[in-house]
Design the sequence.
């Protein structure tokens, strides 16, 4: 069987600015990241997703690009990028770049030209309206920070569309010249070593914007051509969609036919499962997960979910009902300053569970046992916290905590010269939570993550197999599911509550030999063939191998 690398990958999301500074200017850079590749390699990650690294006024953490062909000068040079790609490849790590092509920065030369004259060759690269659009206050993405989606531009004497902030004018994807330029950009980065792209704001790229029509109909031919072009340039390249869309639409991003193979993006972030995991954890009740897993949309063949618990944005709970969101807020963001946009949480996971190591491990064991490929945000592997004194989403973007020296080992600059302050004090600050201390401690969270990722490598069924929820009478707090693939079968048990339970799963089809524990939170008696009387500690988990086949 030919392996598709993305189905057995572990994705690690890095903000280069916040990871490691190599030249003492107070900001992380590509050379700093290169110097930490051995750390990432030992952790076991096989794919780095870099948040934007291009020249940008940096008013939205780099998601406002002013030159698609360059590297932000504070982060390094193109040469540094090529070296990163090469060094990463030496370690079996692929680099996926954020492709932010729904909009540019308003400082991009294309927009400067477009707004300067109706005759500019770039005028039609953006979306304009001569009249004030009736729906200009509709469809905002950042309530409280953004008031409209159409703004009047004095210079152009016209209204321009921006799905996000006013400084992020949307590109006009109906214009073939825009499509051609973007194909060139993708080709360029694939040539210099990228292995694929995380497509930022995918649904908004596809939507055909018209004043007074919101949302506009989507043009999926854009995705068809991306897949054609990228795969022609680099056969094993991938597209990973950021598309928080309803279950009925998800498959369309992956394939043009539900019963055909994936011929669009290979991967989709699982925005449907993510809030369900948090709800289940908040209520210590597996039901939201059982429901989500049993009714999950199927992706076209070769398509892959990417699971995550935290990313660089707020934890978006907008897919939950008011009551469900209320329960999740109460459990994990009890104070108003922990919440954002009325729908989300601007915290990291460790503080959300009061730093309880058992709960952190349970949550991540659960995530890594969900269908698809797991993505992990930098710093989660050591249990970093957030800094709520910073604005909005900045709270969760503080520098990586390498050791307990000044600036957490992130930079040799003076602390006041840092791009973003390093968290030093408090329960989650670098004095207590840092890589160096955890490397020396065999019982640390970091060591646990290394084990988790290693175990996942020995359990390829989770990335490639078919998932089913076990139908047995179980305590409410227990999720029991299994994966079956040509390589074998695995049973996964997770207890979402703080009480010890004993569960009877009963004999399972397709077992060969005696079942055995692969990954557990503590010593347990070996499982019997009947899989009865299985103990699970409070917040406990057991990954049990049921069958291993030579066919895989
Ligand atoms: C989604 C990104 O994840 C977010 O950080 C950004 O602000 C918007 N897209 C706009 O690019």
Sequence:
């Amino acid at each position: 069987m030919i392996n598709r690398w993305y189905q057995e990958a572990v994705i690690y999301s890095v903000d280069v600015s916040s990871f490691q500074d190599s030249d003492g200017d107070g900001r992380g850079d590509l050379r700093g990241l290169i110097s930490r590749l051995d750390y990432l390699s030992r952790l076991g990650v096989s794919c780095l997703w870099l948040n934007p690294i291009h020249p940008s006024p940096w008013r939205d953490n780099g998601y406002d690009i002013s030159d698609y062909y360059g590297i932000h000068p504070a982060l390094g040079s193109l040469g540094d990028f090529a070296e990163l790609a090469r060094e990463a490849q030496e370690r079996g790590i692929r680099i996926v770049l954020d492709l932010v092509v729904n909009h540019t920065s308003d400082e991009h030369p294309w927009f400067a030209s477009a707004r300067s004259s109706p005759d500019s060759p770039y005028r039609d690269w953006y979306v304009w309206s001569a009249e004030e659009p009736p729906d200009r206050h509709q469809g905002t993405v950042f309530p409280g920070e953004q008031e409209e989606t159409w703004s009047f531009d004095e210079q152009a004497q016209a209204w321009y569309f921006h799905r996000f902030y006013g400084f992020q004018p949307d590109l006009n994807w109906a214009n073939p010249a825009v499509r051609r330029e973007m194909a060139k950009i993708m080709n360029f980065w694939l040539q210099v070593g990228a292995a694929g792209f995380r497509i930022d704001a995918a649904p908004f790229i596809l939507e055909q914007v018209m004043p007074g029509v919101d949302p506009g109909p989507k043009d999926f031919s854009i995705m068809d051509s991306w897949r054609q072009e990228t795969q022609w340039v680099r056969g094993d390249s991938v597209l990973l969609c950021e598309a928080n869309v309803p279950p009925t639409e998800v498959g369309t991003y992956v394939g043009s036919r539900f019963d055909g193979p994936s011929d669009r993006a290979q991967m989709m972030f699982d925005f449907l499962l993510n809030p369900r995991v948090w709800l289940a954890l908040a209520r210590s009740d597996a039901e939201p997960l059982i429901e989500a897993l049993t009714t999950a949309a199927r992706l076209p063949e070769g398509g892959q979910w990417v699971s995550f618990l935290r990313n660089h944005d707020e934890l978006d709970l907008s897919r939950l009902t008011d009551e469900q969101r209320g329960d999740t807020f109460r459990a994990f963001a009890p104070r108003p300053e922990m919440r954002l946009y009325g729908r989300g949480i601007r915290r990291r996971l460790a503080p959300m569970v009061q730093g309880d190591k058992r709960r952190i491990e349970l949550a991540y064991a659960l995530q890594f046992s969900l269908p698809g490929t797991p993505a992990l945000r930098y710093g989660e592997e050591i249990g970093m916290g957030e800094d709520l004194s910073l604005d909005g989403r900045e709270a969760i973007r503080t520098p990586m905590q390498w050791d307990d020296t000044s600036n957490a080992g992130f930079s040799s600059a003076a602390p006041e010269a840092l791009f973003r302050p390093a968290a030093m004090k408090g329960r989650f600050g670098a004095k207590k939570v840092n890589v160096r201390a955890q490397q020396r401690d065999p019982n640390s969270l970091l060591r646990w993550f290394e084990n988790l990722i290693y175990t996942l490598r020995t359990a390829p069924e989770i990335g490639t197999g078919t998932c089913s929820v076990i139908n047995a009478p179980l305590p409410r707090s227990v999720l029991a599911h299994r994966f079956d693939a040509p390589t074998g079968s695995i049973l996964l048990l997770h207890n979402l509550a703080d009480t010890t339970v004993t569960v009877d799963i009963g004999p399972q089809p397709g077992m060969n030999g005696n079942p055995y524990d692969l990954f557990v939170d503590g010593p347990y008696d070996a499982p019997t063939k009947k899989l009865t009387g299985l103990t699970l500690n409070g917040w406990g988990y057991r990954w049990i191998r049921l069958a291993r086949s030579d066919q895989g």
Observations:
- The chain has 16 helices and 21 strands.
- The mean pLDDT is 97.
- The pocket of 1-deoxynojirimycin is lined by residues 60, 63, 100, 164, 200-201, 242, 312-313 (CB under 6 Å).
